[in-house]
Amino acid sequence: WDGRFGLVICTDILMYSPGPARPTGGAGAVAILIGPNAFLCVESPLKCFSNIDVYDFYNPTLRGEVVGYPVVDGKLSIETYYQLLDECYEGFKKKFKQAKGRNFSLESDVEFSAFHSPFPKMPSKALARLVFGDYIDSLSSPSCSCSFPYSVPSEVSKKVSYFLSSPSSHETTTTKPSFLDKELERAFVQISKQLFEKVNEPSLLASKRIGNLATGSLWSCLYSLLASPQFRQKLGGKQGGETNGVGGERRILMFSYGSGASASLFSFLLYKTDTEEFDQSFPSFERRLDNRKQLSPASFFRLFDGAEQAIEKLGEEKENGKGNLCGELPVHGPKKGFFEPGDWFLKRVDSQKRRAYEKFMPAGS
């Protein structure tokens, strides 16, 4: 090692056109430092990837300079998410058995999990999908040493058996029965509820409070997990707490998804369990979220639409001082608490659409 670290920054802004999807949008950035002696280490032999060419979410046109609203096929996007999750999970379980010499178990081999979260309910459905896949596998291999650990109501079992007996008569996403059947989906969300609350719910603070960070979605979920009281409680102090993992392994299961579409399922092993170090590395994330400036939806979109309209006019105007695009936001925003000392904000755009930024440094800071 030559002493240099790797730095990965995942950042995005997701803004939908007016409609029911708009409240799920979000914006943010996550910076990741890669180097030796890390407290999280990737289990390289277990990584799995899957890809498909599909128009589930795309941006066909640009409206102005501020934003190009995406086109989303919600049903297709969820179906594709499930398909790639299925394929990655099947590969992950095969690689796990090759590497460890035993079957993988969500119940005993996963300490925590994090999923790409386009909306807060999706991770619970994704985890339920994995449990559903394990149930299908247990039916096809009843003698498997890794028996299915959850109780399945008889009416749910009958419905799954019906799907398996005539899969060609039902819409499918993969070789498994379709999980777009709402009754089946709700049933397995309920079956996996306790597992979800234990391993996945602590990762959802950013998804619930910020929205969909797109590129940064999975990594904001990981940050939420590491900053959560549940994670610290599970660590149990300098000596480390109890672990789910067989042989003392402490594993975080991660699922990354990008429309178009590409996905990966991989895992981290946790090697350091000193809660004091985590307290220094992860200050109160929730407190920082609470300190944000609150705006009503109407006020937010009025500012956004004003900025967009101002930029669209730049091509028609000469540079005459009217290029101060953000109207009241950069001038009055810092006084109203929009920015913290050291934050950079967009000050102006000239007639050539060149942007000028300024650091907010209030008097006395």
Automatic annotation (TrEMBL):
Boundaries of every Hydroxymethylglutaryl-coenzyme A synthase N-terminal domain copy: 1-38
Record keywords: Transferase
SUPFAM superfamilies: Thiolase-like
Superkingdom of the organism of origin: Eukaryota
Single Gene Ontology MF annotation: hydroxymethylglutaryl-CoA synthase activity
Gene Ontology process terms (BP): acetyl-CoA metabolic process; farnesyl diphosphate biosynthetic process, mevalonate pathway
Record-annotated Hydroxymethylglutaryl-coenzyme A synthase C-terminal domain positions: 52-358
Pfam family, one: HMG_CoA_synt_C
InterPro entries listed in its UniProt record: HMG_CoA_synt_C_dom, HMG_CoA_synth_N, Thiolase-like
Protein family: Belongs to the thiolase-like superfamily. HMG-CoA synthase family.
Protein name (database record): Hydroxymethylglutaryl-CoA synthase
Protein species of origin: Paramoeba aestuarina
